[in-house]
Amino acid sequence: MRRTIFTEEHELFRETARSYYLRECAPYAEQWERDGQVSRAAWAAAGKAGLIGWQFPEEYGGQGIWDFRYNAIMAEEMAATSSVGIGLGLQNDVIPPYLMHLTTLEQKARWLPGVTSGETICALALSEPAAGSDLKAIRTTARRDGDEWVIDGSKTFITNGILADLVIVACKTDPEAGHKGISLIVVERDMEGFERGRKLDKVGMKAQDTAELFFHQVRVPAENLIGQENRGFYHMMGNLPTERLAIAVSSLAAAERAYELALDYAKTRTAFGQPIGEFQANRFALADVKAKLGAARVYVDGCIMALFQGELTPEEAAAAKYWTSETGWQVIDRCMQLFGGYGYVNEYEIARIWRDSRVQRVFGGTSEIMQEIIGRSLGL
């Protein structure tokens, strides 16, 4: 079905995004996967092209535009151009609400220009070895000592963990208060006691650095607290619907790319004297995929517009993430099957998409957590 959610301005932005990915990212995809991280030059190029922080006010280098359709375009073009690894989704989808709505004017002036230019790379440190989806179970602490916070603890599965210059860290500032005792504190690169651990060797998303972080009595100025003290859990919960919709958009974009590759392969690969797409089993499989992607696209586009209009509910975002990550995985796996043995060879893009997409059902809250959120909304 024809998509109707984008304006001419969005399509011009799409051209800019596609040009950036083709020029600055796609040619280096294999190298970045070998390195386990992307080049900082690609971040600077994104900033120069206006592809980071457009939500922020003009005085900080942005454009003052809060419109998730631009975020969706970035995710879609990343998938369409076979680009990998650069964590612009985190920088644009997840970080802005924290740095715009929870910060003081002094903090904005100190941090936002670098974030928008691509010079400052951000990370969000929530998950811990014993606390993933259950954020209230975190153990990292921050105690007040005069004009400083002293942070002790560790985090894991942190996207951009190696490259990050600013890390928003969820800490227990009142350990006896459960989820009502969590605060968000920004730790900056090179602060004494802040250490990067392993760059995790993941099944997929090889180019996106994901790391362990350690905090050994890290002294952070008191003014690096963002939001309200002991209200961090509620700040995080308020931002999760946007993050989950972003995952839904990426999941669907990856599945659509897999379908394009499989359809082209089915038309050109021959077996038993005919294109493999002419076999009924394969033709029906692709028909099934097309129908599922079409239905998912209508729902996700509806969620994008609901978010833009301030109407997206946590349950709707959870449903979008659940459906697209689960269905997307089924679609990609089925598309990979059409490639036969070649689909299992890493030099084929379909293999990389298959590896990278498995985690969509896990991060941002597992599929089981999404079902729980949806289920609670049913009054059960």
In angstroms, what is the radius of gyration?
21 Å
Helical content, roughly? 40-55%
Termini separation comes to 35 Å
Largest sheet: 4 strands, mixed
N to C succession of SSEs: HHHHHHEEEEEEEEHEEHHHH
Looking across the biggest beta sheet, what order are the strands in?
1-4-5-8
Determine the number of helices (DSSP H or I, runs of at least 4 residues).
Answer: 11
The poorly predicted ranges are none
User: What's the shape?
Assistant: globular
Structural class: alpha+beta
Mean pLDDT across all amino acids? 96
Counted beta strands = 10
Strand fraction: 15-25%
Topology:
Blueprint: H1 8-25, H2 29-35, H3 40-48, H4 68-80, H5 88-101, H6 105-117, E1 122-125, E2 141-145, E3 148-159, E4 166-172, E5 182-188, E6 194-199, E7 210-221, E8 225-226, H7 232-268, E9 270-271, E10 274-275, H8 280-308, H9 314-338, H10 349-357, H11 367-376
Parallel strand pairs: 1-4
Antiparallel strand pairs: 2-3, 3-7, 4-5, 5-8, 6-7, 9-10
Helix pairs in contact: 1-4, 4-5, 4-7, 5-7, 7-8, 7-9, 7-10, 8-9, 9-10, 9-11
